[in-house]
Amino acid sequence: MTRRTAAAIAIVLSSAMALTACSGSKPAPGSGSRANADAFDPVQVGKGFDTKGGNVNVLMSADFQTLDPGNSNYVQTANVGQLYYRTLVMAKETAGQPPTMVPDLATDLGKASKDGLTWTYTLKKGLKFEDGKPITSKDIKYGVERTYARDVYTQAPQELNAALTDDTYKGPYKGGDFKGIDTPDDRTIVFHLKQPFAEFPALVSRSNTAPVPKSKDTKLDYTNHPVSSGPYKIKSYERGRTMKLVRNDQWDAATDPNRPALPDTFTFSLSTAQATISQQLLADSDPTAITLDSQGGLQASDASKLNQPDVKKRTAAGLLGCTDVLNLNTETIKDPQVRKAIAIAIDRKAIQVQYGGNRFGQLTQSYINDAQRGYVEQHTALDPAGKPNPEEAKKLLKGKDFPKKLVYGYADATPRYKSMGNTLQQNLKAIGIDLQLRPIPAANYYTILAGEQMPDIARSGWCGGADSGSVRTTIDPNIGPSIDGKTYGFSNIPRYYDKKLSKELYELRGANGTSEELGKKWAGLFDKIMQDYPLVPLTRSFTNSVVGSKIRGAQVGYFFGSIDLSTVGVEK
C-alpha cells in the first residue's frame, strides 16, 4: 500500500497479483509475441550469492521523499528502509511473486481474539536500537502514535490508523492517551480494532510499526537520522547529494532471518541525471552500481541495448504489482462527464511508448485485475488498445461549461513525465482544452499533490502485494474516504468523494465476511466509482534494471519495482 515516488516505481501497496505459470519456451520481454506481460518469467542476477563485504553504489536522480518511517507512503523509502528499520511483520519479496508475510520484530504473525477485535504481538528477545538500548513495545506504540500527528506528518500511512479504535487521538505532541494500543509489558503489544480485519498482519508490515525512541524524536528533522533497528545505520546524509549506510553493530542476525545484510556499506548518489544513470549502467562504468529509479533509469531509446549479451546477463527483470495512473482533480474538474471526455481523449498507447513500450509495461484498464481476491469485471469507455477517441469526447463536452485551461503537474527528474505532458497537451487541444505543463521538484512531488497546489492532472502510481491479493488495499487508499468518512482520504490524489458511494466504502471497512466476499463488494463499488472517471489507468509496469558486473543477488521487487536492496551483494 505504498505510493510510487516520482523517480522510483509507480506505493505500494497495490494488491498482490499472482504471476501465471507458463510452460514451454518464452519470448524475450517486449518481443511482442505475447500481449500479456504475466507470461514473462522474472530474471535474477547472481542468484544464491551469500558472500559478505564490499560497497554497493546506488545511483538515483532525486533524493528520497523522506527517510522517516512515520512520514512515508513511498516505495523508495520502504526499500531503503528495510536496511535501517524493522517492523512487527515484514513483506518479504521473492522475484516475480507477491510478497509473503513473515514475522520481523514479532515472534509470529500475530494472534487474533475470537471476535477479531484485538491482535496481540510478542517481540523477539535481544532487539536493540543502534545505540544499544533495548527495543520495547512502547517504542513501537510511539512509532504508531506519531503517524496520528497529521499536522506534522502529511504523508504518514493511515491504513493501520483507520482500523484502530481511537479516532479522536491527534498524536503525541498534543497530549492525551492513545487508546488504540496497549503495552502490558515491554515485549507485548495489543492492537484494538473497530471491526475484524482478517488481513491485519499486512497493516503492521507498514512502516507505522517501525520502533521510534521517544527521546530521539526530532519531529520533521527525524528524517535526517532515523534511529536504526535494522542491519544498517546512517553514517552520513547530505540531503539532495549523498548518503552512506554502514553496519549497525547492535543488530543481531539471530533475530532477523529475513535480511542477509551482505554488503558492508551502501553509498547513495542522490542527484544523478537519469540519462547519466542509464549510460553508466549500460557501459558498466561502475561494476558495483545499481539504481532505484523507475524502469531501472533506462530511457526509451535504451530498450534495444538490453538485447546485447553483456547487458542482458546483467539485467534483473520482472513484472510488478505497480500501476501508473493519471489523477483528475475532482475539485477543479467537477463534472464526471467532463472527466470522462478527458479520459477517452488521451492517447494511452502513445504514453505506453514513452514508457518504453511493451518491454516496460502493459496497458491496463483498471487499478485492479482478475488475479486479485474478489475481483469482479470492471467496465470502462477506455479503448483497450489505448487509442484516443476525440470525436466522442467532443460529443460529451457539447453544451457543457467545462474548464478551457488546465494544468498538468509532473516530476521534473523524469523526462518521460514531461513527454507525457506533451502528449496530453496535444490530446486535450483536440477537444478544446489548453493544457499547461508545470514541473514539480521530484523530492516534493507527492507533498504538492497532497496540498493546496495540487494541479488539475497529475501522474501517480501505486505498488502492492504485501497482503497477497486483496483488492481493498488498492481501492481504499487510492479512492476511499478519510478515517472518519467525512471527506476524501489522505492518499486519495483525485480527491474523489461521493456522498453515496464513499459512504458505502466507509461502511464496507467494517463489514464481516471472507476476503473473497468482501473483495467482490470492494471491486463492485470501485467499478461504480470509475464511471465517474476520477483517474485514468495507464500501464502496469514490467521493469528491466541493469546492474554493475560485480553485483549479485539482484532481483526486481514485485512491490518495490526496483532492485530489492535487502537481497543484493557485491563480488570482491
From TrEMBL:
Lineage: Bacteria, Bacillati, Actinomycetota, Actinomycetes, Kitasatosporales
Molecular function via GO: peptide transmembrane transporter activity
Keywords: Signal
UniProt GO BP: peptide transport
Signal peptide as annotated in the record: 1-20
Residues that span the membrane, as ranges: none
Protein name as annotated: ABC transporter substrate-binding protein
GO cellular component: ATP-binding cassette (ABC) transporter complex; periplasmic space
InterPro entries hit by this protein: Peptide/Ni-bd, SBP_5, SBP_5_dom
Pfam families the UniProt entry points to: SBP_bac_5
Organism: Streptomyces xanthii
Domain Solute-binding protein family stretches: 101-467
